[in-house]
Hints:
Layout: E1 7-12, E2 21-25, E3 28-34, E4 40-44, E5 58-60, E6 63-65, E7 72-73, E8 79-81, E9 98-102, E10 105-109, E11 133-141, H1 145-153, H2 158-161, H3 169-173, E12 177-181, E13 184-194, H4 198-204, E14 210-219, E15 223-232, E16 242-254, E17 257-266, H5 273-302, H6 317-335
Antiparallel strand pairs: 1-10, 2-3, 3-4, 5-6, 6-7, 7-8, 9-10, 11-17, 12-13, 13-14, 14-15, 15-16, 16-17
Helix pairs in contact: 1-6
Domain Rieske: 7-108
InterPro entries: Cholesterol_7-desaturase, Rieske_2Fe-2S, Rieske_2Fe-2S_sf, VanA_C_cat
GO molecular function, one term: oxidoreductase activity
Amino acid sequence: MFxxxxxxxxxxxxxxxxxxxxxxxxxxxxVLYRTQAGEVVALHDRCPHRRASxxxxxxxxxxxxxxxxxxxxxxxxxxxxxxxxxxxxxxxSLRRYKVVEKWQWIWIWMGxxxxxxxxxxxxxxxxxxxxxxxxxGCIPVKANYQLLTDNxxxxxxxxxxxxxxxxxxxxxxTPMEYQLxxxxxxxKRIMENTPPPPxxxxxxxxxxxxxxxxxxxxxxxxxxxxxxRGYPTxxxxxxxxxxxxxxxxxxxxxxxxxxxxxxxxxxFDLENExxxxxxxxxxxxxxxxxxxxxxxxxxxxxxxDRAIPEVSIRADGGSISARRIVEKLAAQDADxxxx
Length: 339
């Protein structure tokens, strides 16, 4: 189940240059490139002649030439040349997708271009804000994107999956609150006077207990920001504490594969390159622990011939709400004929 009228992260901005890059997004092949002027272009990556992959072709100036029969399309998707004939068939054209370059990522709208609304982009401004430093990457995951949404909206699993980095018993033992706000879900967990997890101690040198915050915001279709804070107990002073945002955008390749775009962006000790490496290494290890669990979960879901129903618990409130939002918006797409 995919929302088409919505923004997805297609690539890191520095990944796209004057060369052809293929991405599969919501089950559709897309070819991305920059024009010689630097504008990002996204076209349907399937030649309408014999369905060859245009991303396997060549750029001729700012035009895309199919590697199979040499048919060439401009950056608007219009066919401009068919070798061996003067007249171009009117049906020989490509769909062009709306794209926006913002906050270090390229965003793509997979639905109706005239309905693309930049105000619906996720609030990921900390990816590219003065006074903040972002570290990140993109992980291919062999699982449905909604399993990752579930994972990020219920951080109870940190206690059991991430005990060597960001988890400890306080996470699972502390109840969380959630609320709906339009097409958003907000989840909050505040842990008071608790031992810091291993990575927090390593990053900020905490010696005693801390007050720890997790403030999570889901924005449809699949964007999750986590405002993570830690302060010495009873102290509300960032100079003595830490704050970072974990910004996550889950781009469905198809029903069982996802591109997991992520950053961790912090507002302390910005010039410390050794700290950069520690954070990136430890956070990536943390995410790969999630990937191991979720990919195994996907296999078991696909091979469950008996279709045993899942049993939800209180902590699932946020993720269930997010799924209902996706179902509602996907149904609206279907009603509008967007598939």
